[in-house]
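Re: weekly structure request thread

Next one in the queue (109 aa):
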Amino acid sequence: MNTRKRRTAFSLLELLAVVTILGIIAAVVLPRMSGATDMAKKKLNAHNKAVINSAVERYYLENNTWPSTNISELSPTYFPDGIPVSPHDNTTSYTIDGTTHRVDNNPDP
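Done, posted below.
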């Protein structure tokens, strides 16, 4: 008869290999995850500016005059869901430049 015992636990070498592999995966994934939030905020900020600039141009085409530098003048007609908020501070801190009639505030960080 065979009297060998069955192994019921992991060896130290197997455990060390698994921990090393998990450490390598974490070292690759974590830096990418932290940069994704900043990139998403920058893209949302650029999108908000484009939406507001489009609303300003529609206002001009419909009224033959430029809106004031206050974006709230464009709200409810052009922004039925509300004025876009800045992803950086969650406020409506966008303003329209009186000369270029474009959004110029709230630059990307």
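DSSP finds one helix and no strands in the chain. Residues 38-109 form one domain.
Next request, please.
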